[in-house]
Amino acid sequence: MLFVFDLDGTLLNSKKEISESNKKAVQKLYLAGHKIVIATARPPRSIDSKIKKIGVSTDNIYYNGALVRCFDGVTFSHFIEKNIFKEVFYYIKENDKSAVISIEDNDTWFSCFNFDFKNFYSVKDAPEIITEAELLQKNPNKILINSYSNLNYLNEKFNNICNIIETDSKTLIQIMNKNASKEKSINEISKKYKISSNDIYCFGDDFNDIEMFKFYKNTVAMGNAISELKTIAKFVTETNDNDGIAKFLVEKGFIA
């Protein structure tokens, strides 16, 4: 079987750590021969050290599917084409002067806006500030938008060419290549291992897990998950602060 774990709000507790109970549970899955996939919106630099602490080989999905790095060295990525990025950038800038735009490109965070990033992100390092002209020469893995209030208009204009997700209690809009998503990346990984979709279990908590939950049958929402995810989940477990993953795996007999 293949087990897919979101990180923030799912495998990580509210202190942004993996509990000893959850770590041991994932290790037991791995030792039993199951495949482990980490699926997150985050970039590699911010979570690879936490993934290593699990102590097993994992295939990792970053940027909601815009970048995948498998433990056997296989890597694939989806970038936003430069012309599409420019169109999105100017549309946002012209329609909401308060919006703050930054991008992720090859595991580096860039912006042409000087803003207090700690008001929006729980990270230590600021984005690299470059000129607007330099920014628009990038082919980003992901566009990040804060303080933007016109999501519906953004969807109407770009949903046919981009994957647009609202996360973090609706304070952050993330835009990826149309072909970049957790569910599509999981599908590619499962093909590599020849694992049926019926043998895939997905765990999540936020809006960027909704399409993954719609795509796969065996879905587990955390007790702290948004109501929209709990409604469509096959199972609901305990919260991320109460070892929800470990308890579910024991309850369903995947581990002892």
From TrEMBL:
GO cellular component: cytosol
SUPFAM superfamilies membership: HAD-like (SSF56784)
InterPro entries: Cof, HAD-like_sf, HAD-SF_hydro_IIB, HAD_sf
One family name in Pfam for this protein: Hydrolase_3
MF terms (GO), sorted A to Z: magnesium ion binding; phosphatase activity
UniProt xrefs under PROSITE patterns: COF_1 (PS01228)
Protein name, per record: HAD family phosphatase
Organism encoding this protein: Treponema vincentii
UniProt lineage: Bacteria, Pseudomonadati, Spirochaetota, Spirochaetia, Spirochaetales
